User: What shape does this take?
Amino acid sequence: MRVALFVTCLVDQMWPSVGVSTLEVLRRVGCTVEFDERQTCCGQPAFNTGYSAEARQLAERFIQMCEESEAEAIVSPSGSCTAMVHHYPALFDNAGDAQENHEWRRRARAVAERTFELSSFLVRVLKIDDVGARWPGRVTWHDACHALRDLNVHSEPRRLIGNVREAEFVELDNADSCCGFGGTFSVKYPEISVAILDQKIEAIEKAGVQAVVSGDASCLMQIGGRLSRKGSNVRAMHLAELLASR
Amino acid sequence: MAARESILRSIREHLVASAPHDVVHAEKGDEQSELTLDIGHPNGDRLSASVGVQNDGARSLIEVFGANLEAVGGHCIVARSEAEVIEALNGIIASLQDSPLRGRTIALSNAPLLERLMARVETRVDEIAVSPSAAELFDYDVGISTAQAAIAETGTLMIDSEAERHRLVSLVPPAHIAIVDAANIRLTLGETLATASQGPELSPTITFITGPSRTADIELTLAIGVHGPQELYVVVNEGPPLTNS
Amino acid sequence: MSHLTTETFDSNARAALVDTQLRGALRNATSLFGKRRLAAARGLENWEDLRTQARAIKDDVLLHLDRYLEEFVSNAEQRGAKVHWARDASEANQIVCDLARQQGVRNVVKSKSMVTEEIHLNDALQASGMEVIETDLGEYIIQLAGEAPSHIIVPAIHKTKGQIAELFTAKLGIEPTDDVDKLTSVARNVLRQRFANADLGISGVNFAVAETGTILILENEGNVRLTTSLPKVHIALMGIEKILPRFVDLDVFLKLLPRSGTGQQLTTYQSLITGTKRRPEDEGPEQLHIVLLDNGRSRMLAHPTTRQALACIRCGACLNACPVYQQIGGHAYGSVYPGPIGAVITPQLIGLGKASQLPYASSLCGACREVCPVKIDIPELLLHLRAEITDRKQEQEQAGGRRQEQAGGRRQEQEAGGSFKKRTGERFAFRLFAAVMTRPRTYEFSVKVGRLLQRSIVRRGKIGRVGGMLAQLAPPLGAWTNARDMRPIAESTFREQWRAGLRDDTDPGSDT
Ligand code: SF4
Assistant: This one.
């Protein structure tokens, strides 16, 4: 299948190995992967902080870019950026001309329909839940909120992890509760953000794992940043990285 | 009147203002359902994973009612005749007398049945009053009423102010005993609500009671009997109906 | 820390975070209620259908609110109730105080009602010379303590039994005890006396049925029944959104509300009150007054997104599910309505200007939406309000600038100008962000600049705590690194690696 990779700006700058791993996994399962170098950010930070005009600018750009691609699917190693693309129609609610907005919403929906988060693309679209990965160690999973609640991603990553050779999976007590990141929330209310985070860290420590895996680089920066500050040996790892290892 | 008119006007004006946005929103609703159809409902699965509604098919309404009532701390006693109802009252009052709740003074609602039954209760009590005034009621140990209906799936009693003066007898004394005919037990809340609203006019007060009064306001510790009764006994009469007489 | 305001949410929250006793209590309460809710919801096989149905009923009500209100009023009045309309808090207080005065009321008993707290009815009644007693145990405790409720369902969740015992010892003269049953029975006895003497009972309303004119009130303790049965006058206050069309609609909501709130199948008591008693010798009050309060609600009808907040049945489930509420509790919100629903209702009731922090006090995790029995999309609403705030900011920035010119250097204006400055910074940052992100080359260039700039602070592959000048120059950096390490910009970005050969490397087995 022909796939357009949307790595997200965060992965591009801060965590390129996640993008490299995603690419590798997609190629391993037989996809032809293209990467449009014009891609930057989906606009989520602006949208979530209330700057919809700015978010709209980026959305229009993203939509146009995707329309030019003939890929059957747009795949991203991020639940929240994928969810943002699925939110695009909401950006064209009432600003400006009604007819024009209607048209944008239609285009936005068309793009959203072929945009997938990595694990759901593998499991739901390709029907593959074993990518031939091998990783010796005990791992747990953190459900990133937008993947979980906006995209209904829950069983997919668990099935994929369950098939990683030599990996022992343990469920986290509070797998589905927020890590406290929340975009600008994490720096607008850092104390609350870290208080929420510490509950997650507590559960991770209790689980006695070598790695905590998730599908969103943003959550992993939050969790990993705290683990690292606390001198923990637990590694914050993206699902793509786990699936790429063999 | 000015307030009424201006509130209604404000409601109408704002609803009109909303109309263009409503169109967009409706469109979004469609799209969302499509979307979830496409990608399945794993999250829904997560929530309903262990849906395990107990199958009540095999159990009788009385059993279901009794189990749910006991689950909220009430007591259910099944009687098969008027004589057994009296025996049950006897037993309840006697056991209350052995407890800190005393059970020596009894207040009855004005349901005529109750006076008749109490006349045949052998346990000695200090006083039986029919429908005492609100001020007097605070001194009674036990309140007895009938109930016009019961809901099996929740262990709930329904008392109707047109049938008897129930509001305070069932609430103020530390123990409440209610008599309900088995024939008036319905399975669901929905059926009971439908029955209640069947008459030409609703009664001024319909009260649903599910277990004794409770609170968890202090450190989430359950405390029973905060403003209402500490003990709730329900005598279910399986014999010929009593309460409609 | 009794009456905090929404304007100081930031510092309120920080104060709450260092209160270990509070956080322990919150953790217990929210997780207990969360578990009970889940168990109760799972006990019904058609939970999701019920939620959908409930929301559809509420949507219908809200879209025809004028009609349903009129139907309700005409049916309630036909049955002997007297209905009053109040545009805002002061009108509602006036109505209640006038009624009380006409009836020569001295002693008022109240059962828990959020609406009366919203309008500060107790203060108004006390100012009119009446004694007002809250009779719900939790409300009674915080009234004695002179505090505000911290949870919709468990108002005194922030207090330990030890603190309550001390309070009772000081105010009621009891022997110190930490036995919850004893404390409860002390309150019962004191309040019974109050009930016996009360000449006015004030309650809220959970649901009002248009078809029959019925009001329904739920409770566990029995104080609502006493409040609405004993005094000769009963005044019920309700927001205009509490209407349900048909009597049988109660079925859906009575299934959802207790299960979502406390995990009960039903609360202990439901009082369904339809007008006044028919015969003088019957039990119950002689007069029933129902006050319909708007106070900003009708404004929320103007958009489907804001309108959903009026579907709320005040179950408290979203509070328990909210990671932010779980950490800071209700007081920090400085509003009667805390938690996620408070963060979207409060700004709409008191104005975005006064509560502009609240819509940002959320990580947008969506847990509230997942548990809400009427499927309110609170994150959508938060985003909607955030967008309104940034719009408003723009407006004010212009207006503020103009005003400042006119008014010279008056202190008030300077303060206002100060807060604008910060927002101007944010707006500028996001404009810049959009400008960079719409231009891939500029984006790449800025990544390179960032890589250069970060050199001085990257140690062993990470950025530790950034303080001093740098933190002042880039506040988010300071805020992040205070308790978390940061990942630096990578030596080689994904797109650089793509160009450097990833693009052509099509061997699926290759190692990276
Ligand atoms: S918003 Fe929903 S969950 Fe929150 S209190 Fe209202 S009804 Fe309950």
The domain at 61-237 of chain B is CATH 3.40.50.10420 (Rossmann fold). Chain B has seven helices and twelve strands. The interface with chain A takes residues 20-21, 24, 27-28, 31, 35-36, 38-46 of chain B (CB under 8 Å).
